[in-house]
Amino acid sequence: MRVAFVSDTHFGYPRFEADASVQGRAAILDAASRADVLVLGGDIFDSRIPKLETILEVAVVLQEARKIMQAKAADGGSVGAEAPFPFILGIHGTHERRAKDALNPISMLAQMGLMEDLHNKTVVVESRGEKASAGGGGKTERLAFSGMGGIPDDLVHEALGRLSCKPEAGAVNFFIFHQTMREFIPVPLDSLASVEDLPPGYDWYLCGHIHARREMMGGKLLLPGSTVMTQMKDEEKNAKGYYVVDTQAAPESRSAFVPISTRPFEVSELKFEDAKPSAVRAEVEKELERLLAKAWKDKPILKIKLSGKLMGGAGDLDLAALENDSRAFVSVDNQLEGANLAAELEALKLERMGRATPLELGMAMLREQAGRAGIKPERAQELFEKYSKEE
Ligand SMILES: [Mn+2]
Fold it and tell me: Does 318 share its domain with 362?
């Protein structure tokens, strides 16, 4: 059977809402056309209480995806077309996560019958058996999907130990999760769980959350990345898309990354040595014109990185106006030494915020304090979520 894994579509992402829609929809429908089973890796929505319009949009996309897979199945595909074949499975991500007893949007879609929620559950999918003409002799294939929805990083160790989903004997086993693991970041943090802490016994580990594609554990751990640009990191220049695992293919070609069409993104770096702010500004403007002169298929996202040094004691270098260009989505990443201190602090703050939402930062502090006061971290979190007003 073929399993497609799409993650982090971020429907409703405010900065590039149209891109999230177009690219998320394209990835899900394209994946449905290539696979027997579609697995969603979390952060399908950008927020835990999406707008009704966004919920409807995703519901419609999932209905279309199911129809595509159902039609193939009815047409002699490898899976039975009889309902209720679980064509679409998935977990919630960190963006969709809510308190334990509160409904999250993925669980809601599942309760509406649009997909199966894999959080702490194992769902077995069985093929109808290959057609005799294909030489399969009616042999059926079993796939088992287990999952763990996104949770705060400092609770992962414990949560992994408490999971009740488990690999199924005689099946090809998939574990779906949505976390930052120690090996995923350049500077490992001790508080993070390691890929070695992942539950053993699975043939494939499919992970969302990380927005740039990568493969680890000798190709057994697949991270497709997001389908929309969110962080403007250099590594997001690489193609966005999803994975297809073909359990019947030769071992070396069992997984394949399928790119989708996305808004173009280019990063350009300018280095300076003791430059005057006016000279820097002129160079940035020149570089921007050079980039804009290229033949873009669509309005591009352009990031210009500045590094090196400004002339000693140079005044403010305000490049914010350049970001208001109507011809492109421009972002100037000013890392010049000696640049405006306030701007540097702001950039640092934004970078920190980019990694964690204010709520996550606050929750991490609360759990730490609770630990010192002898209150279990999960209890502190439950209390916080119970008494905090959402949205
Ligand atoms: Mn995400």
Answer: no
Q: Is the Cβ–Cβ distance between 55 and 16 less than 8 Å?
A: no
Name the pLDDT band for 111 (thresholds 50, 70, 90). Answer: very high
**Residues 335 and 222 occupy one common structural domain:** no
Query: How many whole angstroms from 293 Cα to the centroid of ligand 1?
Result: 32
As a whole number, mean pLDDT of residues 335-354 equals 66
Supply the DSSP symbol for 84: T
Residue 230 CA to ligand 1 centre (angstroms): 8
CA dihedral (254, 212, 68, 298) positive or negative: negative
Q: Based on DSSP, count helices (H) and strands (E) in the chain, helices before strands.
A: 8, 15
Residues 31 and 126 in one domain: yes
Residues 70 and 114 occupy one common structural domain:
yes
Report the number of distinct structural domains present in the chain: 3
| Residues 164, 58: Cα–Cα separation, whole Å | 29
Whether 226 and 315 map to the same domain: the answer is: no
Q: What is the mean pLDDT of residues 236-254?
A: 94
| In a shared domain, residues 189 and 273 | no
Same domain for 229 and 296?
no
**Residue 188: predicted pLDDT:** 81
Residue 214 has a pLDDT of 95
CA–CA dist 162, 250 (Å, integer):
35
For residue 295, what are the domain limits? 265-355
Ligand 1: centre distance to CA 375 (Å): 30
Q: Would the pLDDT of 74 be above 80?
A: no
> Identity (one letter) of the amino acid at 173?
N
Do 253 and 272 fall into the same domain?
no
Average pLDDT over residues 17-37: 97
186 C-beta neighbours (distance < 10 Å), count: 4
Distance 254 CA to ligand 1 centre (A): 25
pLDDT of residue 149: 97
pLDDT at site 222: 98
